[in-house]
Amino acid sequence: MYLWIILLAMQITRDAVVEAAGLRRVFRAGHGELVAVDSVDLAIPAGIVFGFLGPNGAGKSTTIRMLVTLLALSEGRAAVAGFDVEKDPAEVRRRIGYVAQGGSTSAVETGREELVMQARTFGGSRHDAERRADELITRFQLAEVADRRTGGWSGGQCRRLDIALGLVHRPSVLFLDEPTTGLDPQSRANLWEQIGRLRDEEVTIFLTTHYLEEADALAERIAIIDHGRIVAEGTPGDLKQEISGDVIEIGAGSGPGRTLAVLRAQPFVRSAALADGAVRIHVDDGPSDSVSVLRVLDRAGLPPSSLTVQRPSLDDVFLTKTGRSLREGSGALLAGQGAR
Amino acid sequence: MRWPSDLWLTYRRAMIERVRVPAWVVVSLAQPLLYLFLFGPLLKNLRSAPASSGTSAYDLFVPGLLVLMAYFVAGGAGFGLLEELTAGVIERLRVTPLSRTALVLGPAGRDMTAIGVQSVILLAIGELTGLHVDWGGALIAVVMVCVLALALSCLSNTVALSMASANGFAALFNGLSIPVLLLSGVLLPLSLAPAWLNDLSYVNPLRYAVDAARSLVAGNIQTFDVARGLAVTAGFAVFAVALSVQHFRHAEA
């Protein structure tokens, strides 16, 4: 066991700022055990945006919480910014920022007070803390509300403050756990912009999301996690290229379930799943196979309402790796039990 | 040594959190008055004090109220912690280098401050309404009750953090109130109790504090009750602080 971990650790590149080998976390759940994270290996080079993509309950937050020293590891080892998370948690904390999923501020404190206190927990003078708070207030466009209690702020403003709080000490790694979940499109666009700016400043960003577009737009490297295990890893381009062939999306109107069943049985269909009420199938040759789709569905009495041939997306990567679509609500629901 | 400056940060924060809630300020200041004005008239009409002769029921009851207030203010500290836990504040602070000792002692310091102020108000108004206060002894009693508040606050936060449920914590806190307070002798003196009940009360650290507070406020400073009360309360605080720091260091909630 240990030899195996050491061997894995040796493979990890030297300049990785986040590295993990054989990461595993088990929770007690009633009489049994729930393996939330299993055999996760990570090696994230400095200065990139790393996207950790997966449905709710896949183990994203559990992994992040182990990396930021909040959760003990059941097995394996992890190092962040050069320090072991279990042996040197204090050193890790000095070098990382962590923005949790559900907010992190008290309703009766003002934004400025929160920033100044957060800055002072890292040492340094009151004066420096106040100056840093000013900088972040300007940068995150919070000047108007900074001296009001956060209880009266909007969701987007609170989120920006959460991120500003994670940055007070200029960390080398910033962990963002589903930063845009529940935000309106405008606030989301604003956050994407901020994240892009951080990347330019060479802060390494570890970002979890269940939005494919987000991972695709922001991340240079992506790991896809499902049921606690990493099922694919690479650049978005590599991952998409891994799936040769095309995707056909069929508008099924009244009977998506039956359409799915009929298509799944066809030899030319490599995989099939429901996504947003449509059926998505993965085939070798989109243009010619779409003719076969039409013929088969016509014969089955299930004429499609629409049919488009597409290049594979990240969702199709997820689909081929797990047999489920990330867009499909039921898949996320089934997997959503272990979220912590 | 960075925990003293960290402690100032957490203490200041804990105070701000409460002082900005008007209900908390009003209730904290009104509580001693309510106890005196509602309980006082009943006690003054008690013909004979059930304890040793020479002390009135009022003299017996009011010092015990110090311990009662400590139980409710510091014992309820866990509710505040659960609120912060839900808001994500605790988690955010735990990912900073902030000293774990400071995380625990900040809120406890807030409760000690509250109890200190409340105790002085209670004793001052008590004296105006007929309580015999020996201020030398009373000052020691106030310090002792502050140390008791430290212990209760730490214990309360530890239990709340490990339960991580406001409903569960409320049930436990309410369920414990009556046995703990009855067995401390605050409400009715344990000299009225049968031997088994009196013996049982010695497992309750609050009992020693109540005995000592009565003796101290009456001016009987160099007594066995006082020495024992101070020793037990100090020991209780050391135990509670150590437990709670240990728990915050390893907690995963």
List the helices and strands and how they pair.
The complex is a heterodimer of chains A (340) and B (253).
Chain A: H1 2-11, E1 16-29, E2 32-45, E3 49-53, H2 60-67, E4 75-80, E5 83-84, H3 89-95, E6 96-99, H4 111-120, H5 126-139, H6 155-167, E7 173-177, H7 185-200, E8 204-209, H8 212-218, E9 221-226, E10 229-234, H9 236-242, E11 246-251, H10 256-264, E12 271-275, E13 278-283, H11 286-299, E14 306-310, H12 314-322, H13 329-335
Parallel strand pairs in A: 3-8, 3-9, 6-7, 7-8
Antiparallel strand pairs in A: 1-2, 1-4, 4-5, 9-10, 11-13, 11-14, 12-13
Chain B: H1 3-19, H2 22-44, H3 57-75, H4 77-87, H5 89-94, H6 100-128, H7 135-163, H8 166-182, H9 195-201, H10 205-217, H11 224-250
Helix pairs in contact in B: 1-6, 2-3, 2-6, 3-6, 3-7, 3-10, 4-7, 6-7, 6-11, 7-10, 7-11, 10-11
Structure characterization notes:
The complex is a heterodimer of chains A (340) and B (253). Chain A has 340 residues and is α/β, with parallel strands linked by helices. Chain A folds into two domains: 2-106 and 171-239, Rossmann fold (3-Layer(aba) Sandwich), CATH 3.40.50.300; 240-338, Alpha-Beta Plaits (2-Layer Sandwich). In chain A, 39% of the residues lie in helices and 26% in strands. Chain A is built from 13 helices and 14 strands. Chain A has helices at residues 2-11, 60-67, 89-95, 111-120, 126-139, 155-167, 185-200, 212-218, 236-242, 256-264, 286-299, 314-322, 329-335, and strands at 16-29, 32-45, 49-53, 75-80, 83-84, 96-99, 173-177, 204-209, 221-226, 229-234, 246-251, 271-275, 278-283, 306-310. Chain A has a six-stranded mixed beta sheet, with helices on both faces. Chain A has a four-stranded antiparallel beta sheet with strand order 2-1-4-5, sandwiched between helices. In chain A, strands 12-13-11-14 form a four-stranded antiparallel beta sheet, sandwiched between helices. In chain B, helix 4 runs parallel beside helix 7 and helix 7 runs antiparallel to helix 10. Chain B has one domain. The two termini of chain B are 27 Å apart. Chain B has helices spanning 3-19, 22-44, 57-75, 77-87, 89-94, 100-128, 135-163, 166-182, 195-201, 205-217, 224-250. At the A-B interface, helix 3 and helix 4 of A face helix 1 and helix 5 of B.
